[in-house]
Each structure stands twice: as structure tokens, then as C-alpha cells.
Amino acid sequence: VLFALALYFSVVLTHPRVKFKRVLRMGLFFPYAINEVGVAFLWIFILNPQFGLLNGSLRALGLDRLAQPWLGSPGLALGSITWGIIWMQIGFYVILLQAGIENISQDIFEAARIDGAGGFGLFRHITLPLLRPVLAVAVTYWMIQSLKIFGIAYALTRGAPAGKTHTIATYVVSVAFPDKAMFRFGYGSAIAVLHFVLIVVL
Question: Are 157 and 81 within 8 A, CB to CB?
Fold first, then answer.
């Protein structure tokens, strides 16, 4: 989902007919520039079941039955955090992919248009194939970043409900520094070392 949205917005931002590109670019990149905990508190404001913006909007539209405890439901919490992470990270990947698209020679696009290629044909046969090296870098970077996710997940749920939203980093903290159980520094350290090895390998 992250890369589909990032690719879509990067194509939109490189289209010559699109206006207000700078404003759109700033809007997409702004969450990436905020501290993770700041994003988490903003997401709490949006998803809070009592006074949250999302449930409040649903109730205002008469859709009370769709209002949910987004961060308290085992079936919804992980997805809710995932969307928060996507919102926080998407700006970086949009800028990265946009730079890749802008590096593609316009002569190639012009030649394809002369041959009768439409918008989708240009994207499928020119933009996407020539963007693969940049996409490979973006995917690799995302894999590393996904292993390092901590701040937003810990601030939102601390792994709750029932451990459904733990990342590796939050799980290490919950094991090594539990709230109501004995500290298990050895077990937590072992997981942390394996976590470090995974990041180094990637």
C-alpha cells in the first residue's frame, strides 16, 4: 500500500498539468519531518474512541455503528497503527520516486507519445521499468526501517491489545522491562542482538 500510494503521488507530482505541486509536496512530506511521538499523539487524537476526529466525523454523519475503538480492538489496532506509519513515511518515498521519474529522459516519453502510447502505456512500459533501480533502493530502505519501528507503535499501544501490535523493538522493551513481571534482560538482549543482525544483513 505504501509504495502504491507513493508511486501514485510521485507520478501526479511529475505531471505537467498538475497545479499546486509545491503545496502537495509539502503536505506529503510534513509528517515525515515530525518526531514519531508527535505523530503518535496526533494519531491518538484522530483515533480516540470518545473524542477522536474519526469517530466524531462518523457520528456527525449518522454512521455511529461504524465508530470503533480503533486502537483497542485486536482486529483493528494493527491496521490503525500501520496507516499511521504509512502516513508518516509516505512523503520520503514520494520524494525519492519523484526524483527517479524526473531523471528519466523526456525524449523517451516524447518518442512513445509519437508512437501512440497513452498515459497508462507510458507508465507501464517506460516509467515503471526505468524506475526499478530506485524502487529496489526504496524497498530495501523500507525493510530496514520497518525493523526499526518503535516510537509510534510504543506511544500508541505499547503492544496492546494482547500483544497484537508489537514490533520487534517494542517486544524487546516489553520483555526486558515488563510492567508487572520480573525483568528478563537475557531474553531481551538475545532478541535485540538478532534484531541488530537482521538490520545489518539487510
Answer: yes
User: Quick check: helix, strand or coil at residue 25?
Assistant: helix
Helices marked H in 61-159:
77-102, 106-114, 119-122, 128-130, 132-147, 151-156
Q: Of 93, 83, 89, which Cα lies nearest the Cα of 8?
A: 93
The pTM of the full predicted model, rounded to 2 decimals, is 0.89
Cα-Cα-Cα-Cα torsion 32, 97, 22, 103, nearest 10 degrees, comes to 140
pLDDT digits (tens, 9 = 90+) for 175-200: 888 877 678 888 888 988 998 888 88
pLDDT exceeds 90 at position 56: yes
Longest Cα separation, the chain:
71
Distance of CA 81 to the CA centre of its chain: 9
